[in-house]
Write a structure and sequence with these properties.
Largest sheet: none
Shape: globular
Structural class: mainly alpha
Strand content: under 5%
Number of helices: 9
Order of helices and strands: HHHHHHHHH
Radius of gyration: 17 Å
């Protein structure tokens, strides 16, 4: 690897030519379909039991929007989750997708590490502003915050080898660590200590998103990541 500092505009390594944003939607849709039942079972232990179905339904709506209108993948996700997906987490995911859409180049190429770092930080800030969650509350923020911090560090580092894989690993660690937290936000906060031992489904969904990004743009290093089905086992 070169010794000089990588420029902030360095793109993440693309796994395919062009269409990266729509490819991300398709990749995430396949992953969510694969683990929907796992996420639902986890949510049945700590919440309303509908998270997996709501997430999968929102992603399906996004795929339909992208197919029918030609919208970019993350823009379609933002539209679907902000406007159609209810519950506590739907609009929060919509905010994250909205900021990620701003990081996607118009030509469909790979987003830059700097753009993704800014998008993740802005999404985190927006979610905190709307929902009030902070790390340690046992929410999706517990996966998003470490991923955003990892991307920010990669943006400022000397030639990071695998910034998206590293961000996904940070998100996975944060998501799995929610199993040791007592929830302080959302429906899970009502069950108190009964939630201990159960990772937050929303945090897992964020981790799965960063895994999809790494899988798409860093195919050489993404195999380090665990399988989606493994991290979502109830």
């Amino acid at each position: 690897m070169p010794a000089e500092r990588a420029p902030a505009s360095t793109p993440a390594r693309a796994g395919r030519a062009g269409g990266g944003d729509r490819a991300l939607l398709d990749r995430y849709a396949r992953t969510v379909t694969q683990v929907r039942d796992n996420l639902t079972r986890l949510d049945q232990l700590v919440g309303d039991g509908d998270f997996g179905d709501n997430l999968a339904g929102g992603v399906r709506r996004a795929v339909k929007r992208a197919d029918e209108t030609g919208a970019d993948g993350t823009a379609a996700l933002a539209d679907a989750f902000l406007n159609d997906v209810g519950g506590t987490s739907g609009p929060l995911f919509g905010l994250l997708f909205q900021h990620l859409a701003a990081a996607s180049p118009a030509d469909g190429g790979a987003p830059t590490v700097a753009a993704l770092a800014d998008a993740a930080a802005a999404g985190h800030a927006a979610i905190h502003r709307v929902g009030g969650a902070v790390p340690g509350d046992c929410t999706l923020v517990d996966a998003l915050a470490p991923a955003a911090e990892s991307l920010a560090a990669a943006r400022d580092a000397d030639a990071p080898e695998s910034p998206l894989t590293d961000a996904a690993q940070a998100a996975i660690r944060g998501a799995l660590a929610t199993a040791s937290l007592r929830p302080r936000r959302g429906r899970a906060s009502y069950v108190g200590d009964h939630a201990l031992g159960v990772p937050d489904p929303g945090a897992l969904a964020v981790a799965l998103l960063f895994m999809a990004l790494a899988d798409l743009h860093e195919p050489a290093t993404a195999p380090r990541l665990p399988a989606p089905g493994h991290i979502t086992v109830p």
